[in-house]
Amino acid sequence: MKLNKVLIVDDHAIVRAGLKQILNEGMPDVDVGEVDCAIDAIKKIKEQAYDVILLDISLPDKSGIDVLKRVRADGCETPVLVLSIHASDQYALRAFRGGANGYINKEAVTDELLKAVAKVSNGGRYISENTADMLLDILEGDSLAAPHSTLSDREYEVLCLIASGESLTQIGERLSLSVKTISTYRTRILAKMKMKDNSELTHYAIKMDLL
After folding, report:
1. Cα–Cα distance measured from residue 83 to residue 138, given in angstroms and rounded to the nearest whole number
2. What range does the domain containing 87 cover?
3. 99-114 residue pLDDT tens
4. What is the domain-level CATH number for residue 23?
């Protein structure tokens, strides 16, 4: 399939510029559009047809997986390649369950990104060998029954950030949410996982290799 239009959804201008440069150099005939938030992404996808969507998993107004689920519910069948700074296999699993066609780390080299875009645009699925191995470990170990599997995608993201040592204020700034909202997420996470404090969350995340 010949690629004509690709949409980049990422809230960081530098990241969008880098992705656009890679696509323009590797696929010079492709028209690359870009948006920086979930609301604009959903609007653009409704208004225009794209051959591939590059979707960041962490957006300020909604998570990328929320966007993915929304556009799939709206009937969009455009291949979606999810981009993430997170190496966690749990993010990949959630992305594929939401309807993603591929999952790739933002630190991937140029050739891997182009290969991933080409593969999903032709109806395939793309995942790195390392992440594929981790997903198999999850399925074989029935990790979906673990407490963190009950969390929403945003709650899971907040859990990982808390376990990484970030304060509620830092997490709020990263996700463009108020400290009060992040605190509410934290309360829900503790309740769902039957834990008392951040140290228990951190210990759990390390034990389950979520970081």
Report:
1. 20
2. 5-138
3. 999 999 887 778 889 9
4. 3.40.50.2300
Residues 168 and 23: their CA atoms lie apart, in Å, by 36
Token pair for 139: 């399925």
Residue whose tokens read 């949409």: 7
* CA nearest to 135, candidates 93, 103, 106: 93
Sign of the alpha-carbon dihedral angle for 10, 59, 114, 1: negative
Question: pTM value?
Answer: 0.75
Domain boundary among 138, 171, 186: 138
Q: What angle do CA 200, 65, 55 make, to 5 degrees?
A: 120
Q: Which long-range contacts link 107-112 to residues 24+ away (Cβ below 8 Å)?
A: 110/22, 110/25, 110/26
| Whether residue 71 sits in one domain with residue 42 | yes
> How does DSSP assign 140-193, residue by residue?
HHTGGGSGGGGS-HHHHHHHHHHHTT--HHHHHHHHT--HHHHHHHHHHHHHHH
SS3 117: helix
Q: pLDDT of 25-73, one tens digit each?
A: 999 999 999 999 999 999 999 999 999 999 998 888 888 988 999 999 9
